[in-house]
Amino acid sequence: VKLYNMGLAVNPRRVRMFLAEKKLQVEMIEINIPKGENLTPEFLAINPRGVVPTLVLDDGAVLDESVAICRYIESLHPDPNLMGTSPLETAQIESWQRHMEFDGLSSVALAFRNMVPFFATRSAPGNVPSLGQMAELVERGKLLTQHWLANLETRLSESAFVAGNRFTIADITAFTTIDFAKAIKQFVTDAQPNLQRWYAEIAARPSAKA
Amino acid sequence: VKLYNMGLAVNPRRVRMFLAEKKLQVEMIEINIPKGENLTPEFLAINPRGVVPTLVLDDGAVLDESVAICRYIESLHPDPNLMGTSPLETAQIESWQRHMEFDGLSSVALAFRNMVPFFATRSAPGNVPSLGQMAELVERGKLLTQHWLANLETRLSESAFVAGNRFTIADITAFTTIDFAKAIKQFVTDAQPNLQRWYAEIAARPSAKA
User: Fold this and answer.
1) CA-closest candidate to residue B107, choices B136, B141, B82
2) DSSP classification of residue A50
3) Alpha-helical regions (H) of B52-209
4) φ and ψ at A3, to 5 degrees?
5) Which residues partner with B54 through β-bridges?
6) Among A46, B18, B28, B78, which is 20 to 30 Å from A180 by CA?
């Protein structure tokens, strides 16, 4: 098994953190996205969409999407459970996980891709038509990120973890997104004590270093 | 069980089509999003994010996200299978389903929300800060939709269905997105025979009318 990875990118980090929670190690191959290594003919032959993480199994089967990779790992290595046990809990965790993606991660990514110089002609990720950057989308991304953090503060005032009373994949998405948000200068504030309490707890887990 | 629904919206339609494939019927309550019924205090008390579909179970538990609702239904009503059986197949179907969302549905929605008059101050969906429309995002959404359709034509030249050799949730997402794309004047063309073959097959299923 090989994981095409980028050390600094948020989506591969989600998978690395998921693997670390399961105490699993896999061979990693670094793909430098700012340098365009995700768009070489060699990498596009593995993943035509030109994104990481991409997991290649020993028989050559390819899984090219973060959450799908996590679900595959969860099936083969069910302990500790990170994606739910009963039908209802599994659906609720998926729901929260997706809210963290759509409300949080996609907002941070919108600002980031429209801001950093090395994506000047690649503001949409992967193997898609060239798109320039728009300053207004940086502002939109930041505004939506702040809105997401405010909602998450409310959630964590009622719940120990994002999806309920235990650590799940939804915490991984939220935590890695908050670290990603530092790149667009959006931070958890002193007025968000529940986010701070939760963030400190997750940051103390060994998987946070993965 | 009650499904908060909007007849003309793509995300509730995904769930309705999924239910129809399982031959299940649930009570539906119509929420008119253009009229703002998703942002009333009554609806926000059920779903604070202000979006549909939202499924409320008989014990009051709420599932507020399309794919999470589908996964819950799949767990309780496993036949016909729409989300995979083995760990690898389940992950591959999820991967394709998510590609249809991120590459297709989100592109169409980007154009649509920035185009139609009733979203003039609500170009981001749900209970979020007011955002105006940007003409350039209509063009971006259309361009990315065309790119997605071209990639899907290639995929369907190699595969009977989106995720492989049988009908799955990935086909539901792709099919409903292609219908949604008509609202932004993007269509499958005569130069895309595999898309046309596949679209006609899916359109002939009784669930396509759900």
Assistant:
1) B141
2) -
3) 66-76, 87-99, 106-113, 135-158, 169-181, 193-203
4) -110, 115
5) B4
6) A46
Tell me, yes or no, if A140 comes closer than 8 A to chain B by beta carbon.
yes
Whether B91 and A98 lie within 8 Å, measured CB to CB: no
Contact between B65 and A128 using a beta-carbon 8 Å cutoff: no
C-beta of residue B133 within 8 angstroms of C-beta of residue B154: no
The predicted complex's ipTM stands at: 0.97
CB-CB under 8 Å, A103 with B91 = no
Residue with tokens 């302990």: A79
**B2-5: strand order across its sheet:** B27-30, B2-5, B54-56, B62-63
DSSP state letter for A205: S
- What is the spatial distance between Cα B93 and Cα B86, in angstroms, rounded to a whole number? 11
Question: Cβ distance B66 to B53 under 8 Å?
Answer: yes
Q: Residues B122, A152, A106, CA angle at the centre, nearest 5°?
A: 55
The Cα–Cα gap between A102 and A92 comes to: 15
pTM for this prediction? 0.98
3-class secondary structure, A210:
coil
Element (H, E) at A18: helix A10-21
Contact A125, A109 (CB under 8 A): yes
**How many CB contacts within 8 angstroms connect chain A with chain B?**
91
- Give dist(CA A162, CA A182) in Å, integer: 20
State how far the Cα of A194 lies from the Cα of A158, in Å rounded to an integer: 9
Give B-chain residues touching A64 at CB under 8 angstroms: 95
Q: Does A26 touch chain B (CB under 8 A)?
A: no
Q: Give CA–CA dist B66/B27, Å, rounded.
A: 16
Give CA–CA dist B13/B21, Å, rounded.
12
